[in-house]
Amino acid sequence: MLKRTVAGIAVAAILAGSAIPGPLEDGYAADKSGDYAKAVEMYRLAADRGNAAAQFNLGNMYSNGRGVKRNDAEALKWFRLAADQGLPNAQHNIGIAYANGRGVKRNDAEALKWFRLAADQGHAKAQFSLGLVYLKGKGVPQNSSESVKWFRLAADQGFAQAQSNLGALYAQGVGVPQDYVLAHMWFNLSASHGDEKAAKLRDTTAGFMTSDQIGEAQLLARDWKPSRN
C-alpha cells in the first residue's frame, strides 16, 4: 500500500510539472502560425479567466486588427485589465493610447501616469516614452535633465532609440554638459542595432572630434554592457 501511495504521489508530481498546453499557449501558437482568428479565440478564453498576458495579447489583436476588426476602445479595455494586474507592457500601451488619443480622448497627464507606472518597473520603452514626455513638456513642465535621466535608463538596457536620443542630447549639450565623446559612443551603440540615422549622426559628430577622442569613444562603446532590470 505504501509503495502504491508513493508511486501515486510521484505520478501526480510529474503530471503537475508537465507543460500541458493551455489556451494562452494555444493562442501563442496560432498567432505565430498566422491563424489570427484562432489566436483571438484562445486569448479570449484565457483572458476571461483573468490571465494578464492573454488580456494584453487580446488587446494587441484589437489594436492591430488581427483576427478581429480593429477596435481601439476594445483594445484599451483589455490593456487596462492587464495593466490593473501590474503588467508593464499593458501600462505602456495605455500611455500610448492616451498620448495619441486612440480609443480614448487624448490626455497627456494620463499618458504620463501610465508611462511612469511601467517605467518604474524597468520597462525600457516606457522609460523612453517618459523621456520624450519630459523633453517635449507634454503634461509636465519641460525638463531636459529629467529627460536625460529616463533616456539613460532605457539606453542602459540597450534600447536603440533611447541611445540615439541620448547621443543627440550630449552632442547639443541639452540637459547635460556637451560631450562629443559620449555622444559618439551612444550614437555608435544605437547604430550597432541597425539605426542608420544614428550612424550618420555618429559620423557627423566625429567631424568635431580629434582622433584620440574618437578612439576613446570607440573604446567606451566596445566595453559597454547593458544593464539588467
Automatic annotation (TrEMBL):
InterPro entries for the chain: Sel1-like, Sel1_AlgK, TPR-like_helical_dom_sf
The protein, known as: Sel1 repeat family protein
Transmembrane segments: none
One Pfam family matching this protein: Sel1
Coiled coil location: none
